Amino acid sequence: MSESDEGKQFGYIMELIEKGKVTIKNIERELICPACKELFTHPLILPCQHSICHKCVKEILFFTLEDSFTDAGSESSNQSSPRIRIHSPSMDRIERVARSGWKRNSLTPRTTIFPCPGCRNDIDLGERGINGLFRNFTLETIVERYRQAARAATAIMCDLCKPPPQESTKSCMDCSASYCNECFKIHHPWGTVKAQHEYVGPTTNFRPKILMCPEHEMERVNMYCEICRRPVCHLCKLGGSHANHKVTTMSSAYKTLKEKLSKDIDYLISKESQVKGQISELSLLMKETQCNGERAKEEASHNFDKLFDVLQERRSSALRAIDASKNLRLEKLQTQIEEYQGLLENNGLVGYAQEVLKETDQSCFVQTAKQLHVRIQKATESLKSFRPAAQASFEDFVLDTAKQEETLGDLSFYSSGLDVPEINEEQSRMYNKALISWEQPGKAELADTYILEYRKLNREEENAMWQETEVCNRSKVISDLDNNSSYAFRVRGYKGSICSPWSREVILHTPPAPVYSFLFDDKCGYNQERLVLNARRNSVESRAGFPLLLGAERIQVGCYVTLDYIIGDTGITKGKHFWAFRVESYSYLVKVGVASSAKIQEWFHNPRDVTSPRYEQDSGHDSGSEDTCFESSQPFTLVTLGMKKFFIPKAPTAPKDSANRILPMPSCIGICLDYDKGKVGFYDADHMKCLYERQVDCSGTMYPAFALMGSAGIHLEEAITAKYLEYPDDV
Fold it and tell me: Which UniProt keywords are listed (predicted)?
């Protein structure tokens, strides 16, 4: 087949690929020769493990050497072979070739040195030259399967028919020829040796059945050198260049390499969603780079227009600089997207590797798999340490037009001075909504606007899409977040066309259930002498009261004070709810939890004489007895807080050592009641971490319950709103 016919066939194949008619898809990048940019033809494996067409090796070698003794930079040297697309050799390479002793008129150079089209490294083939290279049969087979996918309209004709030839129906691997049915019967009659020949479907790829050693042409490779990482024959091991090298059997090398390659391919396939997410992120980054580049151009044009007469030349220069930077970044990002697309299943590198795994010949597989395994490992490392190839910010392309006219000749880009904003984790909080606040550190100029981005952290989807919102101040309320979920937040500042880098990501957790809103009840059982409510009824404090002070003369020993209860003004009869509150650090003893309406009536309608010594707090007749009632579900559950500690109630699952049941009191405490399942949990609301959980009898209406003793204070967590209501703060 002539070179022009081959080019037409390749063009037809590529046309079928674009129309989606080829069955082997998305791996064409791996099947293209880096020199001629066409499908491989008789590919050879170079010492650097890249493959290249046999014809291309000869052309590159001799044209490179020819150019080394002519003008290295002349255009005519590059036009001598339209098939090859390589750079001109460097002067140091020319000198090395000249020192190797090659003569201009000799057909075979003593030392063959040429640049690899794939990695641009110098390749020295040694004295054997091209004859010392392995033929990549695995790659050749994959290319042939690729070609066959496009041969629905390009039939292989019989090689022995008289004109006009008939379409072939089979090809003989021993005869290296294709036959129609009639010619096959004539040339392979029954009862002859040829009748035992191996035949396949119509093909033009007649590869040898076995892989032979390039140094000992009559010997078959049957071992694998672990030092040189290539197949060798027994003569290479006995007295050749691999005599002192460690070798292993071909079957062992085949098994080891196939297991490693399969494992790494499975890992990449399992990370397909991550690769797609990173490709999407790169695509968005490209759009953002495009947008910011255009905005930078517009602002630069506006500034130059103010002084157009004297700045025309500098304006053109600056716009070219912006375009060059933008195009360079877009090119890098596009290249990175193409590289990552090769990591998808049935695409590029992974698709090529999957085709290699179909190779059953151990020798052919081993010679191809090692270099492929190295590429797979590099792709895996790149996936783990993902980083965009270019930044979208154009902060170095802002023009300073404040200088005097005589200094315009030195006009240049200057930095915007925008520092990275920092999200204030103390001021940011998550409750019924998310309130995110940030600061601009240092004395840098404040941004005009900010972009706040957030995304849900989902184990099933490692790279969820970012959602963004534009903010004109330095705080934002985010609504419609899912319960019992984690969200990542980040922010960046914009001033004109310039943007700062992204802030450090901050992760916040939403409550395990919808937030339940209520206020303290100032009617049911509320003791005005010992409990004080603020006007908004969201804060309560306890005080001793006059009855206790008047009866203090009779107090000698023991505890003569009781718990004062207060409940929420709204009950719960179904569903799952969450509420949070803060307990003052000075509080002596506070009990918090839930209680049924019947239990609350019992507490409020059995008043106790706090001045009477007949009532003992530790006698088991008070509300503290719930700690011993863990065997059965009770219509109430309270936990004890005080002296900056959180006390886990006694239970079979609780630690036996009392010291292990004492935790530091969180600054914000949350309670989650699942009425339908009869379960209540106590949380560190700042981190949404469950500290204690138990069953509770929800047979009636359940109320948030609180009890205070001694000096103590409780403040209900306020719901996050876009605008806070004003209340008088007097008591």
Answer: Coiled coil, Cytoplasm, Cytoskeleton, Metal-binding, Microtubule, Repeat, Transferase, Ubl conjugation pathway, Zinc, Zinc-finger
